[in-house]
Specification:
Elements (H helix, E strand, L loop, with lengths): L14 H12 L2 H13 L3 H29 L3 H11 L7 H33 L8 H12 L2 H19 L2 H31 L2 H9 L8 H14 L6 H6 L8 H29 L9 H13 L3 H35 L3 H22 L19 H28 L2 H8 L4 H26 L2 H4 L4
Helix pairs in contact: 1-8, 1-12, 1-14, 2-10, 2-12, 2-14, 3-4, 3-9, 3-10, 3-12, 3-16, 3-18, 4-5, 5-7, 5-14, 5-15, 5-16, 6-13, 7-14, 7-15, 8-12, 8-14, 9-12, 10-18, 12-13, 13-14, 14-15, 16-18
Length: 465
């Protein structure tokens, strides 16, 4: 008989709400901001094809494993891993996996909120007509004036943290669930509006061709590993958020089905974002491979020159804020839940503490773009040359998340008993269960190890990419 535990934090009211919430966690700046420019830099269609394959082969097995652990433990990631280690007769040291996930989510939010603050600022700038008829040089000046002003960055960073904690302090049902019920449908609606605008005012055929016509001349080991890495990171895996959300999943919900639906929603948003962005880029003769500046430097130029650009540019940046907001609440929830469990304090107190500490750590990122640009940490080490922001981004994205993904698969697919896995996954078809176990045991960890080595630059040093 399956081990039945209860969550002291509450539950999602249905499987559908879990899918909305987990998709909200996965859908963030990585989909709206990073995926389009990654596709743009790596040849479009070929990158998208490898990305989709990677979602299926690497992303879904890790997500199923993380949700499995979360629902079986019904606690914060730290306590979940402690409980499951006891259940399976494993070392208590496995709770460090939960700790790493909670810490990664907390650190990511500390700088993520600063980037989300840029989007908030651009909502106001676009709505007020700042980008009307701007040149590339003028658009660049707007962005540089924003990031070089610590007071402005601090204001938007603070506002975004406050918006996030207002949702989190209200709890699972009244806070997280109510927010995703509103924000996720709104996000999809805004994307559809932007695509309609791209069809009417952009070069939609060129955008469609760019995204879905593979150019295999761009295919290389480096591009494959970038697509694999984007697929893994875009699903919010290895940072405790999916494990935490899994702990709120109703007992009768299928982990396999919901994981597939979350991956599908996340991927759909990334593709739709590309369909909204690239037709506008091509219609204005702009470069698709503009890198991180595609959203904050290139698109404002297009919106400033197009009919209805003021309105639809504003809608686009509101879309960006909504995507960031749904991710942010999932990033801080594991830390809030752990404080409640550990110290038996109220959710309000826990939320205030976590929000303040996140805001405070975020000051390092705020000042990384202006007054601290000359300050570098860990000089004389392999991290030399990185600002405070670069350091947090490097440690979380390149080390903590892939390492967390590997360890999640090892525990779920190797260290848990067959009975424990069957009890929780409830996969009726033996072939489907064996496919998940094979992928989670062998294929996914090997793939994530390659991503790990790639982002650390190891493969480049031995000329494998």
């Amino acid at each position: 008989m399956a081990t039945v535990r209860t969550s002291i934090h509450g539950y999602w009211s249905s499987r559908f709400v879990f899918v909305l919430a987990a998709a909200g966690s996965a859908v963030g700046l990585g989909n709206i901001w990073k995926f389009p420019y990654m596709a743009g830099e790596n040849g479009g269609g070929a990158f998208v094809l490898i990305y989709l394959i990677s979602i299926a082969v690497f992303g879904i097995p890790v997500m199923m494993s993380e949700v499995l652990l979360g629902r079986r433990g019904r606690s914060s990631p730290i306590h979940t891993m402690s409980i499951l280690a006891d259940d399976e007769g494993r070392s208590k040291a496995w709770q460090l996996l939960g700790l790493m996930g909670v810490l990664a989510g907390f650190l990511i939010l500390s700088y993520y909120s600063v980037i989300a603050g840029w989007a908030l600022s651009y909502v106001v700038d676009t709505a007020s007509g700042t980008f009307s008829g701007v040149t590339a040089e003028q658009a660049g000046e707007v962005f540089n004036n924003l990031v070089s002003n610590p007071q402005r960055l601090l204001f938007w960073h603070t506002l975004f943290i406050v918006l996030t904690m207002i949702v989190v302090l209200r709890g699972v049902s009244k806070g997280l669930e109510s927010a995703v019920r509103i924000l996720m449908p709104a996000l999809f609606l805004l994307i559809i509006i932007m695509i309609a605008y791209a069809i009417l005012n952009g070069d939609f055929f060129a955008g469609l061709k760019f995204l879905f016509e593979p150019d295999f001349s761009k295919l290389s080991p480096d591009m494959v590993l970038k697509a694999m890495g984007q697929a893994f990171f875009s699903l919010s895996l290895g940072m405790g958020a999916i494990m935490m959300y899994g702990s709120y999943l109703p007992e009768d919900a299928s982990i396999a089905t919901t994981s597939f639906q979350v991956a599908l929603a996340d991927t759909l948003v990334a593709i739709l974002a590309g369909l909204a962005i690239f037709p506008i880029v091509f219609a204005n003769g702009l470069e698709a491979g503009q890198g991180p500046g595609l959203i904050f430097n290139t698109l404002p130029i297009a919106f400033g020159q197009m009919t209805g650009g003021l309105l639809f540019g504003t809608i686009f940046f509101v879309l960006l804020v909504f995507a960031a907001w749904t991710s942010a609440i999932s990033l801080i929830e594991p830390a809030v839940a752990w404080l409640i469990e550990k110290f038996s304090i109220s959710r309000l107190s826990s939320s205030i503490i976590c929000g303040f500490v996140t805001w405070f750590v975020g000051l390092g990122t705020v000042y990384s773009f202006n007054t601290w640009t000359k300050i570098e940490v860990f000089n004389g080490t392999f991290l030399e040359g990185k600002s405070f922001f670069d350091l947090l981004d490097y440690l979380t994205s390149n080390i903590m998340l892939p390492l967390g993904g590997i360890l999640i698969c090892i525990f779920a697919a190797w260290l848990m008993t067959e009975k424990s896995r069957h009890d929780e996954l409830k996969i009726k078809h033996d072939g489907a269960y064996k496919l998940w176990r094979f992928l989670a045991r062998y294929v996914t960890p090997i793939g994530v190890i390659f991503i790990f080595l790639h982002v650390l630059g190891v493969l480049e040093k031995i000329n494998l990419t």
